[in-house]
Write a structure and sequence with these properties.
single chain; 2 helices; four-stranded mixed sheet; 4 strands; alpha+beta; binds zinc ion
């Protein structure tokens, strides 16, 4: 899959530019923050667009990570709720088959 530039913005028609954002996920007692998520940001209204296919992949990866953490929490009742911060690394992108290429049209 290829990350592409959403152009123009579907909300206001403005131009979008490539950038990075962060996403937060809650899975019960597990709170995961993902930094450096590739995104197209509208220069006019600020709306952010994550390519759908990549968003779905990221969501499933984070869910898998959360499940591993949750099973650790369940096996040790003394552990509190956990907050994990991670970032979308080059290695992670390669694992997804994602290329950081943007359509030029
Ligand atoms: Zn916009």
């Amino acid at each position: 899959m290829t990350l592409y530039q959403v152009q123009p913005c579907v909300v206001c028609g403005g131009e979008t530019i490539r950038g990075l954002t962060e996403l937060e996920y809650e899975f019960g007692r597990v709170h995961i923050v993902v930094h450096d998520v590739p995104v197209a940001t509208c220069q006019r209204c600020g709306e952010q667009f994550i390519p759908g296919e990549f968003g779905v992949w990221l969501g499933s990866e984070v869910a898998r990570l959360a499940a591993q953490i949750a099973s650790t929490l369940e096996s040790d009742e003394l552990l509190e709720a956990t907050r994990v911060e991670t970032n979308v690394s080059r290695r992670w992108l390669e694992a997804s088959g994602t290329q950081l290429a943007w359509a030029t049209t």
